[in-house]
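Q: What residues go here?
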């Protein structure tokens, strides 16, 4: 059984940045987890800022050193993370999570978490990965630009603040993640979580718009393959497997 090694900071620029600093000389142990009560320079995907307000959200990152790191595997690790966050969120809220492919975890059709997976190289040119997860736990208000698409575990469930231990939720996330990651290392793919992930996938049987650089089109999503690609049936009846690194998919009806 894989075991995380926990480090906690009250305040830090970014837990992903801190993992990178620790990993830089190759000495940090694999599965080191850095968490923080607050991030002053949290980073999201595509260069966006990620807000981690003090005491009300989880900001946590893990160091992975999978042998023979292949950049194509990064989306698979992000999918494992979304599944682990969903398990923890369901346990603490009693609600059922949805996942918008590939890794947006939803409660009541609103996003509760962000995941940033990075492939890096230390000063000896050895590759490693950082998986960073931010979860809105007891956050009550959001900036106007995301207010209609974000929620927190507390807002979604209506449970009181005391129902949420950020430490316990963080530990649950990484416990689940490492179980899934072990399966991923064994099989090299997502076969062990594909079916339960698809049970949460809100895109299944829904129309999606595929923003393919070769030409946008609409299709019906049917699930994922073991590589984490979204499977779709186009209107002409042909099938395609969509790679999140190459194209993005937007639901046509609302955020989810
Ligand atoms: C997204 O844009 O949805 C991804 C957001 C990822 C935020 C997390 S919070 C912990 C870790 N540290 C960071 O600076 N970013 C990630």
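A:
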């Amino acid at each position: 059984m894989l075991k995380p090694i926990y480090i906690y900071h009250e305040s830090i620029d970014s837990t992903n940045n801190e993992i990178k600093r620790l990993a830089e000389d190759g000495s940090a142990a694999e599965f080191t987890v850095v968490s923080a009560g607050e991030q002053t320079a949290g980073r999201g995907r595509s260069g966006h800022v990620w807000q981690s307000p003090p005491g009300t959200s989880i900001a946590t990152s893990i160091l992975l050193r999978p042998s023979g790191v292949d950049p194509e595997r990064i989306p698979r690790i992000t999918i494992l993370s979304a599944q682990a966050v969903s398990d923890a969120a369901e346990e603490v809220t009693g609600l059922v999570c949805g996942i918008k492919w590939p890794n947006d975890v939803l409660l009541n059709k609103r996003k509760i978490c962000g995941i940033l997976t990075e492939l890096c190289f230390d000063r000896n040119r050895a590759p490693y990965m950082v998986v960073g997860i931010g979860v809105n736990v007891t956050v009550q208000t959001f900036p106007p630009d995301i207010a209609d698409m974000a929620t927190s575990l507390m807002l979604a469930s209506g449970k009181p603040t005391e129902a949420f231990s950020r430490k316990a939720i963080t530990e649950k996330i990484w416990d689940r993640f490492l179980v899934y990651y072990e399966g991923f290392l064994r099989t090299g793919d997502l076969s062990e979580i594909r079916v339960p992930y698809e049970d949460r996938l809100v895109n299944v049987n829904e129309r999606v718009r595929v923003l393919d650089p070769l030409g946008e089109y609409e299709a019906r999503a049917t699930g994922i393959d073991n590589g984490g690609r979204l499977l779709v049936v186009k209107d002409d009846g042909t099938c395609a497997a969509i790679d999140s690194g190459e194209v993005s998919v937007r639901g046509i009806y609302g955020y989810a």
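A: Context that may help when evaluating the design: The pocket of biotin is lined by residues 14-16, 39, 42-45, 48, 50, 52, 59-61, 114-116, 132-134 (CB under 6 Å). The radius of gyration is 18 Å.
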